[in-house]
Fold these 3 entries.
Entry 1:
Amino acid sequence: MDKTKPLTSVRSSFPLVPIRSLGPRHRDRIASHLLALDESDRYLRFGYAASDEQISRYADGLNFERDDIYGIFNRKLALIAMAHLAVSDDLAQANTAEFGVSVLKAARGRGYGARLFDRAVMHARNEGRDTLFIHALSENTAMLKIARQAGATVERNGSESDAYLKLPEATLATRLTEMVEDQMAEFDYGIKQQAKHFQELLS
């Protein structure tokens, strides 16, 4: 049985936000971001109230060659929102990517979760994935709302829910858009780095 529906873009709902692809050199920033989540946010992100030790192990175990990690930085280069687009090692699930996201409380209400979701969808399409999967607690209404707005089919099983989003094939437009957004995010990050360095010199 096909559990998916056609993709509906939510991109136009929010302003353009520089979203940077993260690599191994950002591992400490990723850990700091996740450790800054309070107990309830950790519970929603991981499905359990992850301890500092468990979060550190998660950050240390990120596979940047297999998966894709995206982040939004503020002017001080603090990672205020991030997404993990994971690909299973199971060949039977090779065309499916799993999405997870976290946004610091101070950065809520700006559409960052939806923007990261949109960015992950575009990359998954360009990589040839045909399905985006989200496993979330049923009480994580914000995440499930984003999935539903994009056209995902959401199946609830008690305290947990699974969302399946059918992805269309990549187009020239999606490939060019991803390239432009990557370049813009790199430029934005470089400007913030220079500004931070300048402020440190002044202080």
Entry 2:
Amino acid sequence: MQSLTDCFTLQNGVRIPCLGLGTWQTDGATTNAAIKAALHSGYRLIDTAAAYGNEASVGEAIRESGVERKEIFLTSKLRNACHGYQATLEAFEGTLNRLGLEYLDLYLIHWPNPLQYRTIWKEATAGTWKAFEELYKAGRIRAIGVSNFMPHHIDALMETATIEPMVNQLKLCPGVTQPETVRYCRQHDILVEAYSPFGTGTIFEAPQMKALAQKHGKSVGQICLRWSLQMGFLPLPKSGSPARISENTKVFDFELSQEEVDFIANLKGCCGDAPIPDEITF
């Protein structure tokens, strides 16, 4: 990837920008301002979710931005309480209504095994994916995928699916690389997206990352994003600061050595651990 306009190509041929703006833990005016700043800086991928509670603000910002809808790649995710065929169809309509838009570019199952479906998660996932496939075939979603799915979750989904997931969004950041799941996704041509590429901010305190940033004349955030791209991930950094949002685009004019990439990958303890989806309590 050489520029912000470069794209990954999903297995169905749809192109997705190589770096996006995450919107977790932002709402209202903060979300609106962040998205407008991002679009002004050249971002064209925006990531939200029903659980974030900011879909209305995301849609408002897109409409007010002056950027044509067809130029923007918008992702949202299914809320945990809405698994199953009919609940998924209703949840999707709710998402579009809150966004005030006519279609999604990508829709993801946010978690594979929510607490309330713990004993029937396979059946619930099968119903959800059936709804996803219908919405995709109807042209209301350009691509469909999952988030926080491990290999056994995807294997279970594929017992009844006719379309493979095109994306898997995972926590991927320095020291958190989920190699088994990433390897599985690549074997099945599933693009891996990296949420929390800064480890929810904890990486900024790591002295090893500060040293690398100083060496390259970049910020710690820029080092993280460059690492993510060189790992073959699509990073989704979150920021409410227009200056940081712009700064995060400037990651295409330098390269980390393979030794540095490996060092960052093995930087254990700076960003916590990957969540275990079968043990989440929500």
Entry 3:
Amino acid sequence: MPAMSQDELKGRAEALSGDLTAWRRDLHRRPELGFEEHETAAYLKARLEPLGLDELREGVAQTGVVGVLRAPESRGPAVLLRADMDALPIQEVEGRPYVSEIPGRMHACGHDGHMSMLLGAATLLSERRGDLKRDVLFCFQPGEEGFGGADKMIQDGVLDLADVGEVYGLHLWSTMKSGTFQLRPGPLMAAQDEFEATFVGRGGHAALPHQTIDPLVAAAQAVAALQTVVARAVDPLEAAVVSVGVLEAGTACNIIPDTARFHGTMRSFREDVRATLRRRVQEVIEGTAAAAGCKVDYKLHKGYPAVVNDGAAAAHMSELARDVVGDDNVIECPPMACAEDFSYFLNARPGAFAFLGAGGPDRPGHHTPEFDIDESVLPRGAELLARLALQPAAPSGRARS
């Protein structure tokens, strides 16, 4: 793309700043949980319809919205650009002019900004349809926060609406420096699984412990033993996490309970490490229960795969990001142990996922009542998404890093 065209695109993206902020605030006021995003979908449809897209579909994976913009003469596989739609069950702090109007619901992860940026990219590209060399899918995805909406959209045929060859996504990150794009080739975000274990013993009077089978002590021993899984079963050069966040047992200090329960999470970046965690966590829990004379009900809840960026696509995205914010503001970041269901798109097609800094280290983090973003970065995200669609695909023949 000639330099003048780049300047024009940047200026047009900046000119959309007021709209981007207004869209984000409208969506922020009316947050909806996963697969409940009916009002959100209607809002998106109302703003996509005037753009003259070639196709606009509702109800993809229940509440998702997909717009398709066809190139005049397609010269390669289509590109899919994705934004997630759902909010979280969090009560927002008061005092903001755009505070959530739904009690106990809040956009506390930036998805309102993601939708705004993708609306911006759709606006920019609809104005430059003649410059497109490939078809573009604008994918507004429901149910990212634990519901696996990306997988459900794929099952519902979103990748078949065009010959999709690449997928890209952006995530605003409140604790990263505003205006920086941060990504890396290979693993970027972790795979996530959850586990639950209920230890069943025989309760009784705490003064007569020899007449009981104490599930609380067994559960506590298992929690402590789980700390050895990463230390002793995982290569020390690999990253992994096993954490227990819930431990429940008992009703009184002088009663040994019949049951004790805990609930935890596993994080990893490689499938072989993930398999090791799954196996060893179950073995430790069941072995500790057996040694204590308890029965145990163990459940594994399989979560999202790791977000693994294609090497060539990540380099392509980084190069275009430099056109948006300059060399110094494109950073190769370390992997993050949080999980993201964009991983399903990356398992299905080559592509890349990146963070857009929207604050700094002193700003409240994600999934908190105080969460907020620096809205001035929204034009930068819309511009990068548009550039990804206007440019040819990243080099072919790539392999995962």
